[in-house]
Specification:
The chain has strands spanning 2-5, 17-23, 31-32, 35-38, 44-49, 58-66, 75-80. The protein is built from no helices and seven strands. The strands form two sheets. Strands 3-2-6-7 form a four-stranded antiparallel sheet, with no helix packed on it. It has a three-stranded antiparallel sheet with strand order 1-5-4, with no helix packed on it. The relative contact order is 0.32. By secondary structure, the chain is mainly beta.
């Protein structure tokens, strides 16, 4: 089980929709969010992953977006994961 959340960009148009992908390593296929958390306007603002198996300490995450009115800057990062 893993939750991820993000905020809309400062200048993001109202029709912007976001999508989250992650993978354990550069050799694995990216997995899209299974269950998005949406705001009051139906915009994806988070994700709930079920059945997550973390095999390494750092995982790759990508949030990208789409809009009819503007290009949306993506955000990607390798993030250090910790065992709880």
């Amino acid at each position: 089980f893993m939750n991820c959340t993000w905020q809309a960009g400062r200048d993001a148009p109202g029709d912007t929709q976001y999508f989250l992908y992650w993978r354990n390593s550069r050799y694995d296929d990216a997995m899209e969010c299974e269950l998005y958390i949406t705001d009051e306007n139906g915009r994806n603002m988070g994700c709930r992953f079920q059945n997550v198996k973390i095999e390494i300490e750092k995982a790759y995450f990508l949030v990208n977006g789409s809009s009819k009115n503007s290009l949306i800057q993506f955000y990607d990062e390798y993030i250090q994961l910790y065992k709880i």
